[in-house]
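Recall the central idea of this unit: under ordinary conditions, the amino acid sequence of a chain determines the structure it adopts. In this exercise we apply that idea directly, starting from the sequence alone.
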Amino acid sequence: MASVAEAPPAARPIRAKLGKDDWTLRLLIGLVALYLLATLAFPLYAILTKSATVYDFQFAEIGIEEGADGTWEDLGTAADWVDQLAAPVNDGRLPTARTRLPARDIFPKDHFSDGAILRFQDRSASGGLLLY
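Accordingly, the structure predicted from this sequence is:
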């Protein structure tokens, strides 16, 4: 007679057989995962890393031009315009909330004629690009 306290004999675990359909399904799921990675994750990574890049520039290296009726007039550099402000200026890499300069503060609207367009140009040694 068997005792109640005895453990049942160890049985072999039952494994389901994988058929051709199971392997095809796994392959298709893997392909969909790779497609999503290539179309969503990599572009999102590129966008987010570019937005976290800190650009270093000096106000004296940014030239400003005003365009009206197809002609462009040189207005000096951003440093010239910032010097006219009474606000503190952080010309470093890490701006704080108190030292950011919105464009509306640097370039007052009443200074320019109606329909005027401003163009920004990189005047650094390696520059020459239009920054708009």
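The chain is about 30% helix and 15% strand.
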